[in-house]
Amino acid sequence: MILLIVADLMYLFSLWDNAFYGASVNLGRAVRDHHSPYNLFKETHLSKLGDRLSAIRNTKDKDKDNTKKPPKMNVNVINNDNNNNKDDQMTKDDGYRKTLTGEQWELIQIAKSRGLKNIDDKGPILEILTQAGLDLNKDGDLDQETLDQLPTWTQVEHLYGRKAVIIGLERCEDFRNSVEPTSRFLGMAGTFNTGTNLIHAVMRHNCEITERMEKYGSLSKGIRWQVPWGKHYMARYRGGEHSTRTDKDVPHDHTMALVSIRDPYFWMQSMCRHGYAAHWPHIKSHCPNLIATTEEIKSLPYLKKMYGGGAGGDEKLIPVDIRYSKNLTHHHLSMAHWYSEWYQDYLSADTPRIMVRFEDLLFRGGEVSRAMCECGGGVPRKDNGRSGKFVHVSESAKTGKTAHGPLKDRTNLVGALIKYGSFAHRADLMTEDDLVAARRHLDPEVMKTFGYSHPPLPANVGGTEDSETANAPLIHVGEMEHSEKANAATESGRYDDDHSLKPEKNKKY
User: Region 327-332: what's the mean pLDDT?
Assistant: First the structure.
């Protein structure tokens, strides 16, 4: 009886606290989703009260002037199936439960005070935008149309998991112990269109090796545009004779490679737009293309020579040549083989390197940049405009007219968040044969290590679905929405590489 009275009093106090601060808690959902501390008394009044108590949010600290203040502790946001208010309704995820930081909670309240809706599951997204310079107090910096296009955090975690993937941290201490601080470097690596320029921009804004700066000056932060053996070259060239023109004096073993990888399906789409040193036979209406169609074999001389007259068997792979220089060309059986061989080379390398996902650079940039910086013995920059707090890249890593524009037009970082927060156009223009070939030839170890899954096969294609793919969004093969909004989100927000960007002369990183 005493416990019952105490529980009732605590419950009434919590209700008063929530009413005073304007918070809302759906107790019905809380009872279903959370275990009661009094579960010994199941189906009793005491049990129900315990379940209610376990669902109540932690009491918030008051300011001295009794004004509202964001919580110092984490705020639990709970799914609410029965709430008809879209602004408070979360994406269903089998009882999925998120934790917001005080800063994210405050950003949500600011957005709501401006009348913005559908915001409760976008706190981390708002934080990313403020890290790039967005001011939620300004009406022109974020509108409802743009906000509706941005993904929820539930969607992001459905696509990429609940943690960043960072490979190679176990070798950081070896690197720091073997290379004197004043001669250490962090250099970017990755094949074309995987975000090497984005890594460089993020690291240049957020990391520095102070020992180098003390010896060589404030511009010598130890952050280089690329690894000395060439950022697009495979890992096997580390330690060899090849060095880039601007890095001939940099010892290979003094550089920790920061390697970016990207979802292979999005990556293949970017290669179709910007092929750089890659050459393969393809037509605009069928790219990405792993398997040659009958029409392509008839119309493209290279493929006609390979497969004309029924040659080549059932799987007519489209080969890719990568011309790194006039003296070096790599040949791969398809784009999927190229991706797999390039990243398997770094994944299996027995040398210090850090491998991160492009998507984590976008959605978890602060966490990833800190890990890379600390690995090389660096510290956060204090003069980055945010007093050492993480600064995201507000402009695209590309240069040129298409890389700039107002946030309301969903360009730059906003466009990237929209595009990579959805798998809606991930397999556009790929045929059923392409999708089957991708499953067969994309290295399973690389895919599993970095948490990438395959799009589901169309219903009329044989084969079994794995557990990851079975729950993936349905892709309509060969279809592409050509609406203005879709193109704006897909094209304007590219964070691909641009080879017009070169290291500035007389400027050391």
Answer: 95
Residue 245 belongs to some domain of the structure? no
State the distance between the two ends of the chain, measured CA to CA, in whole angstroms.
69
Give domain status of residue 29, yes or no: yes
Residues spanned by the domain of 15: 2-140
- The answer to whether residue 275 sits within a structural domain is no
Residues forming a β-bridge with 322:
278, 330
Per-residue H/E/C for 79-93: CCCCCCCCCCCCCCC
What single letter denotes the amino acid at residue 260? S
Q: How many CA atoms lie within 13 A of 222 on its CB side?
A: 33
Q: Is 34 within 8 Å of 56 (Cβ atoms)?
A: no
- 329 bridge partner residues: 323
Task: Tell me if 495 sits within 8 A of 397, measured CB to CB.
Answer: yes
Decide: 456 and 465 in contact? Cβ < 8 Å.
Answer: yes
Q: How far, CA to CA in Å, does 193 sit from each of 222, 265, 498?
A: 24, 12, 8
pLDDT tens digits, one per residue of 428-472:
999 999 999 999 999 999 999 999 999 999 876 654 444 333 333
pLDDT in tens, 213-262: 999 999 999 999 999 999 999 999 998 887 887 788 888 999 999 999 99
Residues 100, 75 contacting (CB under 8 angstroms): yes
Q: What does the pLDDT look like over 162-192, one tens digit per residue?
A: 999 999 999 999 999 999 999 999 999 999 9
| Range list of H helices, 142-231 | 144-149, 153-160, 172-178, 196-206, 210-216
Q: What is the identity of the amino acid at 490?
A: T
Contact predicate 141/111, CB 8 Å: no
Handedness of CA 237, 359, 98, 141 (dihedral sign): positive
Q: Please check the confidence at residue 24 and state whether its pLDDT lies above 50.
A: no
The closest of 446, 450, 492, 451 to 468, measured between CA atoms, is 451
User: Two tokens at 494?
Assistant: 């590219």
Q: Which two tokens stand for residue 322?
A: 């990568």
| Residue 107 contacts residue 126 (beta carbons within 8 Å) | yes
95: left (phi > 0), else alpha (psi -120 to 50), else beta? left
Prediction pTM value: 0.73
Cis peptide before 288 (omega within 30 of 0): yes
Q: Domain for residue 224, yes or no?
A: no
Q: How far is it, in rounded angstroms, from Cα 432 to Cα 460? A: 9
How many domains in the chain?
1
**Please, how many CA atoms are within 13 Å of residue 374, restricted to the half-sphere of its CB?**
10
